[in-house]
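Support reply, case 0932

Customer input (verbatim):
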Amino acid sequence: MRIKMVLPALAEATDPFFRPIKYSLFPPLGLASLAGHCRDGDEITIEDEHVGPVRTDDQPDIVVIETYITSARRSYELADLYRARGAHVCLGGIHPTSLPLEAAEHADSIFLGPGDESWPRFLADYRAGRPKRVYRSERRSLMGLPRPRRDLIDRDRYLVPNSIVVSRGCPHSCDFCYKDAFYAGGRSFYTAPVDDALDEIASLPGRHLYFLDDNFFANERYARSLMAGLRGAGRVWQAAGTVEAVLRPGLIEAAADAGLRSLFVGFETLDQTALAEQGKGHNVGRDYDEAVRRLHDAGIMVNASFVFGMDHHTPDVFARTAEWAISRGIETATFHVLTPYPGTSLYTRLEREGRIITRDWDRYDTRHCVIEHPTMSPAEIEAGYHRARRMFYSWKGITSASLARETTGEKLRHFAYSAAWKKAGPVWDAAISLGALPYARPALEAVLDGTQWVRRAFGLAEA
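Our regenerated output:
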């Protein structure tokens, strides 16, 4: 059986405003995980349109398309093309789960929720000649799953091929998050067995890991067990966590001891009222300054997430947020315009209030404003978003944030990481075009690993 799996390019992936490295970071691990359920004799291909063209001259029996909101248009184009050729087209992912009737117009089978259990059921039905139109996730568990088929992925096309997922979902329910829609009707947070996770990690070459879990520290007991297994293994890794987790006594220090070197943290907004408005109660009343200090004291870099356009935001929110992040020496920041994804509580509320101004899914990329705001126009919000981003990633912003760090090594590490991330677009373009991303990985590991590289390269002692 010939099975083609596709990750179509996000609409914004070809926007020249952003450099391509953002879309060459991680391989499509979800598709590789589905491939793990197929038979040895199946002919499987995985194509990621972010790193190469999708072939359309083939004749697969089954086409599986993972669909996000801003890849929906492209996903449907490919789906319609292959259905016209007689292939059985499967659409799954966040967007089909949120808007199943829309997706069903372009698919023979749609998958709602995680596919760990529903995909094997489909394969059995298809082989028996009775595939269903709709498959819903019924049993939520990561026990006994096969390993992702990483052999189907060209590691050289990605800067961080060692991505891994050890849990699904998150115990929190923020209004703007897709989680409640995607995991509706069952468990919304569950973990893989620690031993299975450590065995998979041991099979990965190199030192660098990236945990793609929504909230690595959601289950502290689980996280501590996993970190105990990582301690002493010589790995350096990145993950995502909450402010609340960072402030738990001893937890972030234990993570640093196990190799954590960079953490994505959802600060979202400095406005306490706006936090409560968006259901981000676990951030309300938390000391953001202390969270940043704890991370930096442990030698962990911060990738801060901020959202603009909440109802209580005023025009000063953009500069105020960027200035705070710069003054605290935050290494990288991800800025977003508040976007109501279908299926979320935010979407339901704004639709009820008549405040959604477009359903052009290409614009739901968190860089365009698709809603009416009480005090700012969409153009003002978009301009403010770009202004904050330019402030933070200007040479002045990068330099000021680097100088906010305490030691010489920390200053140099901060400058190298931030400048490489946002100011080296032509270098990344060349590295991608020449297939040189594998040669960049040792430099990334060295920077993540702290200030040792500074002392080795320049003979500097810590200030």
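We compared this against your earlier run and they match. Two observations from our side: DSSP finds 20 helices and 14 strands in the chain. The longest helix spans residues 378-393. Please reopen the case if you see a mismatch on your end.
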